[in-house]
Amino acid sequence: MTQALVASNFPIPSALGSLDAYIGAVNRIPVLTLDEEQELARRLQQDEDLTAARGLVMSHLRFVVHVARGYSGYGLQMGDLIQEGNIGLMKAVKRFDPDQGVRLVSFAVHWIRAEMHEFILRNWRIVKVATTKAQRKLFFNLRKSKKRLGWMNHAEVQTIAKDLNVPVSEVLEMEARLSGRDIGFDAPSGDDDDNAPPAPMQYLEATGADPSISYAADDEEGNQLELLREGLAKLDARSRDIIRRRWLDADSKVTLQELADEYGVSAERIRQVEANAMKKMKALFAA
């Protein structure tokens, strides 16, 4: 069975489970080769084959997760970002032309980011405008506490701070936030204009690597971590403990002598056990 068929027949990861379970599921879906991607794209383009569309979407769900992680600093739920990115991925799959000489991942990144950006723009100001207890109190009470339009004077600020039992500095900061206006930095678009291209901001030069290279690197990193877990699982308990404490615990690495004292053997014996364990794990990576 080809990877394309595996991807198209892989069960859709449940959105009702935990986020970790979803990410684990999409990371197990095989990545398509160029030939498989081209075949599925042409089937979708020429025959409107929904099974082919499903295969293209499923095999790129892990890339949406990869992109979503880059927006984790906005205080929004990762699951919501992934969901929005998946919508962008489906729009990209619908419009992908396999004869343009680019991989789907390079084409889809613009659509995925566009959906995530729109979601962030709709929600970021609401999330960030009140992040402390005092700010939330001001957010819901400041407007009705003001006696007039425009900026408050010193006496009004002092009065509101006293009435709401919050610091004067918080009153001034919240007034500035509520009085400010959002400035859009992307092109306006219709509510449901599926035919509209990504906003011009999506075509700005990225500071990172090419999406296909980044995607491949992320996939390779995941494979290496999986191999590492498998390798550790195949070691005996003592060897696994030595490798973990000597090489994987960055904050508390131990010496050979410390392990030797703990296990009641010589430091040379610990070194031999470590070398043998490393040899077994390297063989797994080389396979």
From TrEMBL:
Name of the featured protein: RNA polymerase sigma factor RpoH
GO cellular component annotations of the record: cytoplasm
Domain of life: Bacteria
UniProtKB keywords: Cytoplasm, DNA-binding, Sigma factor, Stress response, Transcription, Transcription regulation
Residues annotated as domain RNA polymerase sigma-70: 80-93, 255-281
Organism: Chiayiivirga flava
Main location class: cytoplasm
One annotated GO biological process: response to heat
DNA-binding region(s) in UniProt: 256-275
Residue numbers spanned by region Sigma-70 factor domain-2: 56-125
